[in-house]
Every structure is written in structure tokens, then in C-alpha cells.
Design goal:
GMP Synthetase, Chain A, domain 3; three-stranded antiparallel beta sheet; two-stranded antiparallel sheet; 3 helices; 30% helix; 34% strand
């Protein structure tokens, strides 16, 4: 799995994912043009859509209605270093028995993004500098 990100000027970045273009930007009050969601907002969208996918799969395999399914994702910002310190995913479905409510909760908790955030993945950052045909790499 991978994506390519390019700087698009100002505070904008463009991500190319399997031929899809996603623009990330900052609000005007943070130096951007508000042309797209911020990177943390994209993370919330990723968590919510992943959780939604798992919810739909649970409901469909049991022939339960997906009508009215919605999710709302919240996050709180922490400091030192700046990070998102708390996530809350609220799943709303109009009608569900207690048995299926617990099953739906288990299914949503199996979401790939949820589990990734819980497991503190290794994030490796590498800076590549190209000079006239040669690549110099500084890793950290």
C-alpha cells in the first residue's frame, strides 16, 4: 500500500492514491486557502470510513438494514509533541437489537485503522535530497 504526495503551493498538498486525487490544505486563518481538509481531518475521515466499512459488512452479512447508518468521529489535540491524543467514533443506526449492537461494536473495533492507531505502529521518516542525478539520503 502506498501513496504519492506532492507539494502544490501555499499550504496545499496533493495525494495521489490509485489514480484518485486528494487535496489537503489549511484553513485561511492558518495560512491556507481552505481548498481541502487538513491532514488530521483526513485521519479522522480515514478512521470513520474504515469503521463504517466494517459496520456495513457486519450488517450485510446478517441481512440487517444499513439504512440511516452514520458515523461521527471526534479527536482531541495533545501537546509535547503535538499529536491527537484521543479519538471517539460514534456509530448511529436507527434500529438494532442488543445482540447485534454488541456484534456491531466488535466488528467496528476490528477496523484496520482503529487497530493501527491502537498498536503504535513504527513510522520511519527518510529525507531524500537529489543533486544532479545522485540521491543523498538522511534517515531519522
Amino acid at each position: 500500500m502506498n501513496t504519492y504526495i506532492r507539494y502544490a503551493g501555499g499550504a496545499q498538498f496533493e495525494a495521489m492514491v490509485r489514480g484518485h486525487r486528494i487535496v489537503a490544505d489549511q484553513p485561511v486563518d492558518n495560512g491556507g486557502q481552505d481548498a481541502g481538509p487538513t491532514p488530521p481531518e483526513l485521519l479522522l475521515a480515514s478512521l470513520g470510513t474504515c469503521a463504517g466499512h466494517y459496520a456495513v459488512e457486519y450488517l450485510r452479512t446478517r441481512n440487517l438494514s444499513t439504512e440511516g447508518l452514520s458515523l461521527h468521529v471526534f479527536a482531541d489535540k495533545g501537546a509535547k509533541p503535538v499529536h491527537l491524543s484521543f479519538f471517539r467514533v460514534e456509530v448511529t443506526i436507527p434500529d438494532l437489537s442488543p445482540k447485534h449492537r454488541e456484534g456491531l461494536l466488535r466488528a467496528v473495533k476490528a477496523c484496520l485503522i482503529h487497530n493501527t492507531l491502537r498498536m503504535s505502529p513504527v513510522v520511519e521518516i527518510e529525507v531524500n535530497v537529489a543533486h544532479a542525478g545522485e540521491d543523498l539520503v538522511a534517515a531519522g
